[in-house]
Amino acid sequence: MTERAAPPPPPWLSIEGVSRRFDGVAALKDISFALGAGEILCLLGASGCGKSTLLRLIAGVERPETGAITLAGQVLSGSGAFVEPEARGIGFMFQDYALFPHLNVADNVAFGLKGRPRAEVQARVNEVLTVAGVAHLADRFPHMLSGGESQRVALARALAPRPRLLLMDEPFSNLDQGLRETVRAETLALLRQMQVGAIIVTHDPSEALAVADRLAVMHAGQIEALDGPRQLYHVPPTLYVAQFLGAGNVVPGVAERGQIATPLGVFPAPDLAQGQPALAFFRPQALTLCDLAEGAAARVLRHDFLGAQERVFLTLEEGGAPLQLDLPATAQFRLHERVGLRLDPAAVRVFAAEG
Ligand SMILES: Nc1ncnc2c1ncn2[C@@H]1O[C@H](COP(=O)(O)OP(=O)(O)OP(=O)(O)O)[C@@H](O)[C@H]1O
Fold it and tell me: Which of 122, 166, 245, 273 is 20 to 30 Å from 299 at the Cα level?
């Protein structure tokens, strides 16, 4: 599936030209993007790239130095305006869930409903605990909950006041692998059922690809790319995005008359200047083994068993960095075997080599 994601919904949350420095060092540089109502956006990036700072600015616990944040037509920050965090109608869920240890589950969930009539609070608490699948835990205290249960309670608490938008900072990172996928799928289903949009921070590319309607790859305080997950994975706009989103191979070449020649084929490079050093990037699955007569000669260096697949590392006889390709776990090949390699040209992206 390589088609472009559906066009983004009309802007509902708008971030325009937002910057923030700490002690003179820029944490966010001129960030602009928009989110549609009910949309799920992932912020993905390496440690320190500014993901949490951006989330905190939207929540209102941090103020931008420049730019504006608008939600459903209301200016939250910017042009002299500032709406306090509790008046924004935005929910926040942290990595550690931050449940109040001295309150039971029902009281934790009721916390954000203070000031409302008792019967209404009780009804809403029951409703969200039921949809989150934790109504039977209402009387327990946080230390009596498993990781998955704590996550569901935290989600119920965040959703109870009917937020317009939910901000989630690494919400699944405390769960182990198997549980993480289940809780993640349930959380997403719940957000969609309640029609609550969310911005989810993660540093895990596979999580962002699985969860996001659209995904923003951040790098050094800026948004390097923002698009649908399939588009970004298959047609990455930069080498950084390509490499951040998953395994890949890089083969060097030089632009000559609008293309680059490599041992694995000749690829179009219409945007590069004559003589400009270039890199051809492609995913492991774009490479296949073939007869020596029909492909570039290479040797099997090593292989890693991945369960469903075998990731095979090879070197081209012409030299260069090792290449990776994925084979079914049942595939037959031998260590140090001489094989032919074929590359699907449609899966190749050419970038200017930096430096
Ligand atoms: N309150 C603060 N005071 C000083 N520097 C800060 C503060 N908050 C963030 N920073 C700095 O701003 C930059 C961005 O931090 P931020 O926490 O937003 O990154 P992140 O992408 O969320 O990282 P991680 O994935 O490690 O949580 C970092 O260099 C960080 O050290």
Answer: 245
